[in-house]
Amino acid sequence: MGKTFSEKVFSAKAGREVKAGEIATLEPDFILSHDNSAAILKKLPAIGVTNLKYPERAVIVLDHVTPAADSKHAANHQAIREFVAAQGIRHFYDVGFGVCHQVMVEEGFAYPGRLILGSDSHTTTAGAVGAFAAGIGRTETAGVWVAGGLWLLCPQTIRLELTGTFKPWVSAKDLALTIIGRIGADGALYSAVEFTGMAAAALSISDRMVLCNLAAEMGAKNGYFPPDAVTAQFFGEPGGKHAHLHSDPNAKFVEKLSFDLGALDAVVAVPHTVDNVKPVGELAGKRIDQALIGTCTNGRIEDLRTAARVLGGKKVARNVRLLLFPASMRVYRQALDEGLVAPLVDAGAVWMNPGCGPCLGAHEGALAPGEVCLSTANRNFKGRMGDPNSEIYLASPATVAASAIAGEIVSPEEYF
Amino acid sequence: MGRVFKYGDDVNTDVLFPGKYTYTTMEPAEMARHALEDLDPEFSQQVQPGDIIVAGRNFGCGSSREQAVLALKYAGVAAVVAASFARIYLRNCINSGLPAIALPEAAKALENGDTAEVDLAAGIIRTSKGDFSFPPFPSEVQAILAAGGLIEYLRAKYAEE
Fold this sequence. Notes:
The complex is a heterodimer.
Chain A: H1 5-14, E1 23-26, E2 30-33, H2 37-41, H3 43-47, E3 58-61, H4 71-87, E4 91-93, H5 100-106, E5 115-118, E6 132-135, H6 138-147, E7 150-153, E8 157-163, H7 172-183, E9 192-196, H8 198-201, H9 205-215, E10 222-224, H10 229-235, E11 255-260, E12 267-269, E13 277-279, E14 290-294, H11 295-298, H12 301-311, E15 321-325, H13 329-337, H14 341-347, E16 350-351, E17 372-375, E18 391-394, H15 397-406
Helix pairs in contact in A: 7-9, 12-15
Chain B: E1 2-6, H1 13-16, H2 28-33, H3 43-46, E2 52-55, H4 67-75, E3 79-82, H5 87-96, E4 100-102, H6 104-109, E5 115-119, E6 124-127, E7 130-133, H7 139-147, H8 150-160
Parallel strand pairs in B: 1-2, 2-3, 3-4
Antiparallel strand pairs in B: 1-5, 5-6, 6-7
Helix pairs in contact in B: 4-5, 7-8
């Protein structure tokens, strides 16, 4: 029996053979945390330990409520900065640098075969470049800080075979939502999700990040793309360098599913679960108050190009607020260089600072009772973006941009 | 025996503990007041120490926020019994010392009005609908639960060293 990617990474890290279903104590290459570092660092005195075992492995990115929305958040950020200085943590990214999952990939922490843990559920995003990346809780992040490692269950693997090519107005977000709609919000519970096939190999790193990000909404422990020519190009390396990490042809997969990209159309995840997915046509006429393009799911340069393509020369509807959140300052800078900023300003969009924005309802565009938001983010749970009687619909950047013009949910087809 | 509070599938971390409180509300009694706020606004007034939450599939899906566990613990919930748990939520329960038992038969059988208690050592949920047994946790997990949570487990470990 051959090994899966997960079994290979676990075995290499454990220094012994580890199979799916077995527990191993492993030390991650990097341990990510964000604004929640303020709560995590308070756990150290309770453990009775003062210092991090490996300060060079900690990556801390302030992104969730940045800049601080009020004095409480400001005090949290202050406590984190003081802690970072006292511990000598080098990998610290302050307000405005970007969303943590974007930073992990942009700054090179995510790398083929690395084990990355983070106190955030969308840590899975780093699987896009062939890392084994999983979210964990706050207390165990404190545990990793002081002990260096923690227990992990080696997951079984679900293989998703991708074929075909997208229609011009359909994107990785539509694919991810379609997968979640088919297998359910717990369809990949505790499992690794491996994206393979000719169509997977043709997807960009940005598209791969969308799919690995949303693997969390399938219940998966991690999602990943086997490192290939696209990955090699991203890192400026010769192709084939990481082929040994690929799942063996005779490895055990608990489930194999295939998706034809050419058969997909634009879809929307309807309140209040991400697996409540419907064709965009069924939502026709649904009035929206706010439109959001950004977050760790869809705030990359490709997404902003799509927004500019759809919105350039057009106007956002009078009754709609369109908020743009670049995933990082690098992305924002590139948008400036590419001339994407001015046409979107002219269209009536509001450029916000790189960060998580209102995705978790804390600031920068929270929703009032009865309001409807169409968003490129990854969760539409009841009350997540503000009032419990508001509604969140999830869609691709193209669908959000087209709908912002119409003032209601529409297919982006006519713009492509 | 505690009383059963029964909920459905996919009870997510935003309804367990809304995101708007995650970085500012840290005091246990206040966290308990927001437990399940957006799903069952009555819950925090009605729950008593020893009560049990019973739910369907994928309990605790969504964010990694640990307050979604701690709010229940601080509210007095003695255990959560569900058909299945989201994986980070299950880890957070173990690390916080809140027993989380994945047992579809018990999750299906128990309803509001039933009573139940979890005997971790014996691997049995005793209820007004009869006893349900569950398989033991792996030894790594048992050690953490036995210590009362990961903080306590590590504190004991480093105190020894």
